[in-house]
Amino acid sequence: MSFLREVDRNGLYIRHGIDDSPDNKEVAFHIHDLCEVFYFVSGNAQYLVEGSVYQLERGSLLIMRPGEAHCIRFLSSESYERYAVNFPISLFDSFDPKQRLMRPFTDRPLGQHNLYYFPELEGTLHELAYYEGDDYGRTLLFTTRLAEVMNKLSRHSDRRPTAEPTLSEQLVRYVNDVLFEDITVGHLADHFFLSTSQFSRIFRKATGASPWTYIAAKRLIRARELLQGGESAKKAAENCGFKDYSVFYKAYVKRFGEKPSCLHK
Q1: Which domains does the chain have, with CATH numbers?
Q2: Tens digits of per-residue pLDDT, 30-40?
Q3: Which one of 89, 159, 185, 231 counts the least CB within 10 Å of its CB?
Q4: 103: phi > 0 → left, psi -120 to 50 → alpha, else beta; which?
Q5: Which residues contact 119 (CB under 8 A, 6 or more apart)?
Q6: Which residues contact 203 (CB under 8 A, 6 or more apart)?
Q7: How far apart are CA 35 and CA 90, in angstroms?
Q8: What pLDDT sits at residue 21?
Q9: What is the per-residue pLDDT across 146-166, written as a single tens digit (0 to 9) for each?
Q10: How far apart are CA 65 and CA 87, in angstroms?
Q11: pLDDT tens by residue, 79-123
């Protein structure tokens, strides 16, 4: 049995979900243009973020910034419960123009310092998911409570030195370094003296996605950011590694459900 409650408040989303028998075959890696706060209630699982692997326990809270790939991996079929909140990185700009509340998201290396432990936040997240007041009250509660969560994260940001990267992390970081270049999986594998199959296997285990699925998703997210900044669709495609505009166009529509030109209307 599965249960999912979703609340959408003008681009702010909160979900509460329970899966009695979770299955890795039914989950895929995520990458999107919103920030995410993920709170783990129960289950037996790990969380993958850009090659880093985090063991989860009740009260584990993970943060992902826009464009940061993440995926859950179940270690058994124990009942899985979680909360997730998604919101734009500009959410608090009206009263925090320097984005100090967002530093835990932005002021760290990719895939590093994503994990916190805040068991006391479960009640706050439950309140956000099940508030039954009017729309104005819900939006006000959503924003103020989320700001409280962000303030807690800002005060507890992990600034310990980053450990020596594992091979998996090195693979993911290198792919991000050359993301928009003319690359093939063979070239990527050669850089690490691995076969193509070895590289693909390690990469999928680290991210939850094949190299090209990951690369295409990352390129599309970046292209969308450029479009939102006023770049033309053709130029955005070129800058993000798409040689063939028709390939970019079809992939963009499939992922975002709209034409690239829609952002310029």
Answers
A1: 2-155 (2.60.120.10), 167-264 (1.10.10.60)
A2: 999 999 999 99
A3: 159
A4: alpha
A5: 58, 59
A6: 168, 171, 172, 175, 209, 210, 211, 214
A7: 10
A8: 93
A9: 888 888 888 876 555 567 888
A10: 10
A11: 999 999 999 999 889 888 998 889 999 998 899 999 999 999 999
The residues near 45 (Cβ < 8 Å, ≥ 6 apart) are 22, 56, 72, 73, 74, 75, 80
Residue 184, pLDDT above cutoff 90 = yes
Q: Report d(CA 153, CA 28) in Å as an integer.
A: 27
Q: Is 33 within 8 Å of 89 (Cβ atoms)? A: no
Q: Which amino acid is at 144?
A: T
What was the pLDDT predicted at 262? 66
101 CB contacts (<8 Å, ≥6 apart)?
92, 147, 150, 151, 153, 154
Looking at residue 8, its amino acid is D
Which sign does the torsion angle of CA 73, 77, 83, 86 carry? positive
Listed in sequence order, the residues at least 6 apart from 83 whose beta carbon sits closer than 8 Å to its beta carbon are 14, 15, 16, 38, 39, 41, 122, 125, 126, 129
Assigned token pair, 58 = 């009740």
pLDDT number for residue 158: 54
Tokens 């129960």 sit at which residue?
42
